Amino acid sequence: MNLANRGNGALTTNPPAGDQHLSVHGSDWLWAVFAVFAITSIIVFPLTWRARAGEKIFHYLFTIALLSGAVAYFSMASDLAWSVIPQVNNIAHSGLTRQIFFAKYVYWVISFPVLIIAIGLLSSVSWATILYNIALAWVWILSYLFSAYTHTNYKWGFFAIGTVAYLALAFSTLAQGHRGARRMGYSRDHAGLAGWMNLIWFFYPIAFGLSDGGNRIGITSSFIFFGILDLLLVPLLAFAFIFLARRWDYNRLNLAFTQNSRVHSAAGTFPDKQTHGVAGTTTGGPANSTNTTHPVV
């Protein structure tokens, strides 16, 4: 078998459609992005077992985001998970129909909340704020998906709503998150991570407006744009979070719940749990007397 003659046969097995559709070079690029996500997930997964006892929340989160990215880019590189949608803008330039890959939107629905949870845990904001930010991300992504599937100029109404949701999300993760991180003593790390995340997010509306929204650039060009953004976002932040988390105090960040219940608590990992933990763990006459009078149920 001559491996040198083996090429990318994805588009032969799964033929594209539409005036604007995926090219062989575009599929090659998508396979490269898939490889980065796959290799990064293979690197991050073993690091979970080298983390300090119980301090694996960021490893878990980014393993999910990286694996979902690998699945999405595998499907797009294989020319799967798409629809042909009639276009209303730039028809003379790009044609009447366009191949819309919904796999990338599904990936963002998973990966963006992972980033929001991670940055929310670092800034020690409330769970209500984290859920609010996740909902904003879903409104943003789903509005863009609806826009991509709308074949009239009403698509720009969806685009406007999604962009407003993005702006609200950016304000929340930067302003509110910074206040919480400063209170915890991690404002510098938060500023770097949240600032980078929002810097990359800033380019997603531009990329969408040029590609699935405005039909201005082709499928391959759009995938180069989105692929670079996705690589700069999740794989890069995965390593940044895992590296920086080694010096964070999980008890101070209220992340001690990662060692509760069925997770074994290694001695000394959360020293404050010895004095502020479960009632009945202290010793001595007065404490035992108090626990007898007021039992914990």
TrEMBL record:
The chain crosses the membrane at residues 29-49, 61-85, 105-123, 130-150, 156-175, 191-211, 223-245. SMART domains: Bac_rhodopsin (SM01021). Belongs to the archaeal/bacterial/fungal opsin family. Residues 280-297 have a biased composition (Polar residues). Keywords: Membrane, Transmembrane, Transmembrane helix. The keyword Transmembrane applies. This is Heat shock protein 30. Residues 273-297 are annotated as: Disordered. It is a multi-pass membrane protein. It is found in: Membrane. The keyword Transmembrane applies. InterPro entries: Arc/bac/fun_rhodopsins, Yro2-like_7TM. It comes from the Eukaryota. One of its GO terms (cellular component) is plasma membrane.
